[in-house]
Amino acid sequence: MKAAVQRRYGPVDQVRVEEVPAPTPASGEVMVRVRAAAVTVSDTMARRGRPLLLIRPFTGLLRPRRPIGGTEFSGDVEAIGTDVSRFSVGDKVFGSTGSRGGCYAEYVCISHDGFIAKMPANLSYRQGAPVCGALTAWNFLCDKARLQPGHRILINSAWADIGTAAVQVAKHLGAEVTVVCRPGDADAFRSIGADITIEPAEDFTRGGRSYDVIFDTQSESSFSRCKRVLAPDGVYLSTYPGPAVLLQMLWTSRIGRKKAVFSATGLLPISARLTFLEAIKRVIESGELTTVVDSCYPLQRIAEAYDHAERGQTLGTVVVTVNHRDDADPTP
Fold it and tell me: Less packed terminus of the chain by CB within 10 Å, N or C?
């Protein structure tokens, strides 16, 4: 099979598309014919191997432990091992392999008890691949912030997968949604549910509005700066476990009403993540949530996909599509 292989950490030129043996599903595993895979922030960090202490304990200290990258996929169940009951050959599925990677390939194997589920019928493969952005948004807004109808939420740096999903999840929950975004993206954010858009130059931390929740999806602000515009019981959410955020989490858990919160969604138990995913699927099926795809690249152009995603000028997720040699049509 064809796969994007990387044997050293570093820039995109370390990634090569090569012929490698296809995996075989072991007992309790399903083999997925990959149709699309997301290019996420965690994928680019894993490719670089940085930050060292955050990434390499999971991916390998000196070189990638598993040379095929990619953590989020959509596709079809191609084969099943023994003792598999949740899936059948031909099921349309999506999910994540986590630090095991392997999704930038024609086939990947994953435990049937892993983070994998049947896709909603109204999602294309390209829309299904970036599933973890919606999962993270759901965890932060529903479980951690307990966002309620009528709450005011500000979503900072909403351009990537988590941010575009968070706008839609917040609207589904009945909140008033303010988004900090580039001027050229304002109409796109309003089309998916934003009530108010603010340009980065305006500095929302010095504005006259207060917010029940501030979700900093790229950790470009701080609890200290945002505290002045948080409501008395407001919550500041950060996706990056920097030392300052972790100390503020500890401090605010004991003192004061305003809270700083970080959560590593990908490290939650699979059972908890699958529970979130079932709730997300219902919202997708209702038409209130979809994945925003910025652009698609074929697997052979994965270096361009990485490069485009890392420039930080996307709106939504960059997706790699995988077309198989026996397919009559390209990946939908």
Answer: C
d(CA 193, CA 89): 37
State pLDDT tens for residues 54-84: 778 888 888 888 999 999 999 999 999 999 9
> Residues 196, 200, 203, CA angle at the centre, nearest 5°?
90
Chain length of the chain: 332
Rounded to two decimals, what is the model's pTM? 0.90
Give the torsion through C-alpha atoms of 160, 164, 166, 167, to 10 deg. Answer: 140
Alpha-carbon span 28 to 31, nearest angstrom: 10
Residue 215 confidence (pLDDT) above 90: yes
User: What are all long-range contacts of 193-202, with beta carbons under 8 Å and residues at least 24 apart?
Assistant: 193/167, 193/168, 194/167, 198/154
- Residue that is written with structure tokens 């990638």 in the block: 64
Tell me the angle at which helices 52-59 and 41-48 cross, rounded to the nearest 10 degrees: 80
* 111: its two tokens: 């435990």
Cα–Cα distance, 144 to 157 (Å, whole number): 19
Phi, psi angle pair for 247, to nearest 5°: -65, -40
d(CA 3, CA 124): 22
pLDDT 10s digits, 112-154: 999 999 999 999 999 999 989 999 999 999 999 999 999 999 9
Handedness of CA 130, 131, 132, 134 (dihedral sign): positive
166, 140 contact by CB (below 8 A): yes
Q: Which helix (H) or strand (E) holds 56?
A: helix 52-59
Percent of the chain with pLDDT over 70: 98
Q: How far apart are CA 135 and CA 130, in angstroms?
A: 9
Question: What DSSP string runs through 169-214?
Answer: HHHHTT-EEEEE--GGGHHHHHHTT-SEEE-GGG-GGGSS--EEEE
